[in-house]
Amino acid sequence: MKLTDPAVKNAAPKEKQYTLYDSEGLFLLVMPNGSKLWRWKYRVGGVERRTSLGVYPKVSLRAARLERDRLQAELKRGVDPAIEKQALKAVERATGETFQLIAEEWHTKFRHTWTDNTALTIISRLQKDIFPYIGSRPIREITPPELLAVIRRIESRGAVETARRDLQKCGEIFRYALATGRAERDVAADLRGAIAPPKKRHFASIHEPKEIGELLRAIESYQGSPVTRCALKLAPLTFVRPGELRHAEWTELDLETGEWRIPGARMKMKEKHIVPLSRQALEVLHELQPLTGGGRYVFPGARSADRPMSENAVLAALRRMGYEKGEMTGHGFRSMASTILHEQGWPSDVVERQLAHGDRNKVRASYNFAQHLPERRRMMQAWADYLDSLHETHQGQSS
């Protein structure tokens, strides 16, 4: 019995995929995830072959039958539909007009604008979440609903922020294709507002003076790796981002002048950044120098000195000291410093500059890496002295 439109529309997914047959080799494959795929089976030289005719409802029952009839006519003329499709795909790939090839070209062209970690994250997300679904599609044929279905897959697993960022990157790829004459518009722009905004994330942190003192004493008595202990000690004294801390290199440090100059390539805002080193920070570095000073990284990995410390090392150490996920994180040292320094009355421009939140004006930003430096030096030393006072003040009460 031939299929009907209601039968196709109402075909519900089951635990395993199943098939609904129409006629003359046309059938509908119903997948466990609800997808409905048109297929046509035929024979060439006595050998059964199959080819895809599209996805329902984008391709209706009537359209699938018309395509089957066209391919049957082609088959009678000696044209194998499977070989024809392979040839078309080869042409598309040769002209570089599939989404994946254009995305890879875009990634190669712009990767110098990102840190290595960011570049790797971008291509990894594309390979995992985007390419399997629309990577082989000609970019000019991709529709907004088709892209939205891909983004919804990411959103449905609870990764709302990842879905938002992947949609943003897809938009950049479409605009690149548009600029290079291989797409007619940015279909991602039609999806603005289609993804719910993520809940604002606040990194867990400690702000009460007594609790900060307890944390500092816990760090001082940490029984794990001495390299990790030094990282824990330096984190509140410099309040850089965790990735900037663990990738620190000895060549960036001037222990004579008391400066750590982080190159722009490793900064989130792509601007070089100066961290004035307090007397206490220099003491930590002098303690660490005999252990790791002969290598590249200030905080090398436990398994290889050629790689930086694991991104989970500081977080794992905090957990080992008894600080749960909702209490403190490696990023929380930044929140701690920001909150208290503002409360202490330090000028916001000085605090924000030291946090490397940057200046969004690209022209000004290129000259501002040393902005407020004298006052930042005074602030960083005063901050280190304040931490020392917290370390000592409640020590008797907690023992």
Automatic annotation (TrEMBL):
Pfam families: Arm-DNA-bind_3, Phage_int_M, Phage_integrase. CDD domains: INT_P4_C. The keyword DNA-binding applies. Residues 202-384 form the Tyr recombinase domain. GO terms for molecular function: DNA binding. Keywords: DNA integration, DNA recombination, DNA-binding. The keyword DNA-binding applies. Transmembrane segments: none annotated. Residues 97-178 form the Core-binding (CB) domain. SUPFAM superfamilies: DNA breaking-rejoining enzymes. Belongs to the 'phage' integrase family. PANTHER family: PROPHAGE INTEGRASE (PTHR30629), PROPHAGE INTEGRASE INTS-RELATED (PTHR30629:SF2). This is Integrase. The lineage of its organism: Bacteria, Pseudomonadati, Thermodesulfobacteriota, Desulfovibrionia, Desulfovibrionales.
